[in-house]
Amino acid sequence: MSESNGLGPDQLEAVRQIVSDSCVDMLGACGLPVGSVTAGRLVALSEHELAGFIGFTGHIRGSLIVAASTSTFTATFPTLPGSRPPSGDDLLDWAGELVNQTLGRIKRRFCDRGVDFDTSTPTAVKGRHIGPRSPTREGIIDLVLTAGDELVSICFELVPPEGGLLFSSHVEAIPCSQEGDLVLF
Amino acid sequence: MAAKVLVVDDSRAIRQLVGTALMQAGYEVIEAEDGAQGLSTIAKERDIAMVICDVNMPNMNGLEMLAAVKAEAINSALPVLMLTTEGKADLIQQAKRCGAKGWIVKPFKPDQLVAAVRKIVGQ
Q1: Residue A177 is nearest to which of B12, B87, B116, comparing CB atoms?
Q2: Which among A9, A56, A171, B121 could bridge A117 via Cys, Cβ 3.0 to 4.6 Å?
Q3: Rounded to a whole number, what is the distance in Å from the CA of A97 to chain B's nearest CA?
Q4: Quick one: average pLDDT of B82-96?
Q5: DSSP assignment of B49-92, as one string?
Q6: Looking at the complex, does the CB of residue A75 fall below 8 Å from at least one CB of chain B?
Q7: Which residues of B touch A27 (CB under 8 A)?
Q8: What pLDDT does A136 receive?
Q9: Does B88 touch chain A (CB under 8 A)?
Q10: Does B105 touch chain A if contact means CB atoms closer than 8 Å?
Q11: CB B65, CB B39: distance < 8 Å
Q12: Interface pTM, i.e. ipTM
């Protein structure tokens, strides 16, 4: 794992914690409680058949990838009583939406620390042995989340602003509503 | 007759979830995949009671669609509820200024969404 992306160790750890907390929250909200989070990347990803991708731009830029098995995306797929089981295309679509909602959580935590970015629309792929390229590039945070028998790979890439200072103690939080908030005008 | 609700979201999973919740609550649901398709659907289907709209979508985003909808005098009373992962206060205020009826940050609870639709549509 290579993480010397111009951020100091404190800021890098803050980003890693934000990404980890956001992923754990998202999967937990989808009914898949995460047991452990490990820094690093899986060597063998044979069971990873679906991956969602999303990018972000602005003051900072980068991307988020969430890769997991079909059974993981099935377990987290949002359903109501009486709904039909998700098809393969439904799960592919859900991989994109799950990474979109996960980046939304990361964005709110960044906003709490005064940093904003604009998100792109997500996309998703399905295949066999989906994994990141090797060796990894600088500026990438890799995490492996364990939820029961399921493994979820997270790959977060961040290109910091000029000068490398991401979070400053002198910057105010950017006001944001939280997940599930409803405002009627 | 059931009130017709247009759900505009590029995620099929979200359209299905919203659609199932609203149909189980007695509403008729039609769908569009992005803002441009949503706009043309509104132009064609004159009996839409309410629109539920994502923000980040390809082709035309939800705030652009909202502005285009409200630019037509015939749609001035059409309620639009934004449903999105975005939560920034300035975007919420922008939607309010453009004439949106409300804003929900994903993920949402289906019961909460149905209650909001009932309050807005009045059924």
Answers
A1: B87
A2: A56
A3: 6
A4: 96
A5: EEEEE-SS-SSS-HHHHHHHHHHSGGGTT--EEEEES--BHHHH
A6: no
A7: none
A8: 66
A9: yes
A10: yes
A11: yes
A12: 0.89
A166: helix, strand or coil: coil
Amino acid A81: pLDDT: 86
Q: Check CB contact under 8 Å for A182 and B14.
A: no
Question: Inter-chain contact B88–A100, Cβ cutoff 8 Å?
Answer: no
Q: Is B47 on the interface with A (CB under 8 A)?
A: no
Q: What is the pLDDT of residues A30-40, one digit of tens each?
A: 999 998 888 87
DSSP state, residue A40: S
Task: Give A38-49 pLDDT, tens digit per residue.
Answer: 887 765 555 789
The owner of tokens 């100091």 is: A8
Q: Which of A178, A170, A26 is nearest to B88 (CA)?
A: A178
Beta carbons within 8 Å of B115's beta carbon, 6+ residues apart: none
Mind telling me how many Å the CA of A185 is from chain B's nearest CA? 5
Q: What is the pLDDT of residue A148?
A: 81
| E strand or H helix that includes residue A91 | helix A88-112
Render pLDDT for A69-123 as a digit per residue (tens, 0 to 9).
999 999 999 988 888 889 999 999 999 999 999 999 999 999 999 999 999 999 9
Query: Would an 8 Å CB–CB cutoff place A104 in contact with chain B?
Result: yes
Q: Is B97 on the interface with A (CB under 8 A)?
A: no
For residue B66, what are the CA distances in angstroms to A179, B40, B78, B101? 22, 13, 10, 11
pLDDT at A82: 81
